[in-house]
Amino acid sequence: MSPVHGDHTGQNGNVRSLETTVGTLFEIGEDSDVMMSLDRPRAVNVERKRSFDERSISELSNIGSPCRRSGFLGSPRLSNYYESHPMVANAWETLRRSVVHFRSQPVGTLAAVDHSVEELNYDQVFVRDFVPSALAFLMNGEDEIVKNFLLKTLRLQSWEKIVDQFKLGEGVMPASFKVLHDPVRNFETITADFGESAIGRVAPVDSGFWWIILLRAYTKSTGDTSLSEMPECQNGIRLILSLCLSEGFDTFPTLLCADGCCMIDRRMGVYGYPIEIQALFFMALRCALLLLKQDNVGKEFVERITDRLHALSYHMRSYFWLDLKQLNDIYRYKTEEYSHTAVNKFNVMPDSLPDWVFDFMPSRGGYFIGNVSPARMDFRWFCLGNCVAILSSLATPEQASAIMDLIESRWEELVGEMPLKICYPAIESHEWRIVTGCDPKNTRWSYHNGGSWPVLLWLLTAACIKTGRPQIARRAIELAESRLSKDSWPEYYDGKRGRYMGKQARKFQTWSIAGYLVAKMMLEDPSHLGMISLEEDKQMKPLVKRSASWSS
């Protein structure tokens, strides 16, 4: 596959006329002072196209200078290593084809570069999808594209968003954006989707968390603190946190979310308090503590963050954690308890325990379950949430070790022939009809419903390195190497063991490629883990009863 060429946006692979673009998006024009536009946000009606002005990225990129720089389109470092690994070389070549440029500056990567099928929204730069690409570039000494991406999405956050006459929160980050080129005027604009065009019209709760996490990764990797210390970045962090730390009717420190608000962006029964969002929330809070300046405004947020972290860590470690002992305790729960001494605090009915969980739970091991809310526990395993729990140290060292024990014990179920199950098990039959609304894309063992996603390889590898079990990651990477490149880097695999390429999977899926590269580079140089891992905060260690699965 060769890059698409056309004017100075040719490397984007997504050139389209402005006149053919759906008008329910946001646009960025050019040539005015960005500082003024950031300080004075204006309302944008998403039912119309309206341009707004901004300073060029090249000017902003010169604010502060990273400790290292490399030509973005240059060859990867360690060329001898890549020459001896054809699959790695192929991955880098394919990744670079996905790079999107805005006025000659790299600003992200396309979701996929598969011209054999309709593009839909795969020709956009997704915030969550770009994270593994960003990490790959940072590990390779190419930080310009990451800095540009962080600045570009920050501009998009600064504008008011109105959907169907309803104003979205000021801190909402876009799910994705797209560079558009007007060939008549030779003029580029950016459009963004804040959820108004997404399936189900749900705002991306995870985008803001990934942005903070990536900003910390950039700072840690480059040693450049000037970006995060910019007033605009400091304000961007505070706006995201203001959405999450606002007071309301909540009795839990977890975040209440709609279905489809994260990587699982379709109806899959993850509404409520999904583990993926809670783990990302926890990690973003910890990253924000490291990034926020200790000025008058910053100190107030630091206090609120610290209080929330203590409550959140206690809640998650106490009520979301499941191992053999806890499973047995739930099995024996009494119901209808009333008082502050209640053991069954969420009034979960023991009869609601699914049959599969009794066989799935090993004698040694455990995991954070998918969801906990009044009278409801979702016992499904979700890979991303558990891996982020390890990396953020939401999981205690004992819990992190137990999660790895579970992965090893249930290798056939969670890894099979292609890493890695996004969730386990699949829902089917009547439950599938009720939970997904008969979604034809999320049939059993496909897509989000028990499909196998190669992008998760980087998260597994990072978790393995942090817990001192690189052999697990090595085994998973070898499995992926047997097929990924030959199958043209598909988005996901189907089947109970991940044997079949996904029925609607895009080929040349960028985060499948980047996920493999990040996993490979971390295994070769474990020091890279530092940009995406946080050590345990001893002050947040809760009084959780020790269980059999934690014993050595």
UniProtKB/TrEMBL annotation:
GO terms for biological process: sucrose catabolic process. It catalyses: Hydrolysis of terminal non-reducing beta-D-fructofuranoside residues in beta-D-fructofuranosides. It comes from the Eukaryota. Pfam families: Glyco_hydro_100 (PF12899). The keyword Hydrolase applies. InterPro entries: 6-hairpin_glycosidase_sf, 6hp_glycosidase-like_sf, Glyco_hydro_100. The keyword Nucleus does not apply. Gene3D superfamilies: 1.50.10.10. It is an enzyme of class 3 (hydrolase). Keywords: Carbohydrate metabolism, Glycosidase, Hydrolase. Its EC number is 3.2.1.26. GO terms for molecular function: endo-alpha-N-acetylgalactosaminidase activity; sucrose alpha-glucosidase activity. Belongs to the glycosyl hydrolase 100 family. Invertase that cleaves sucrose into glucose and fructose. This is Alkaline/neutral invertase. It comes from Prunus avium.
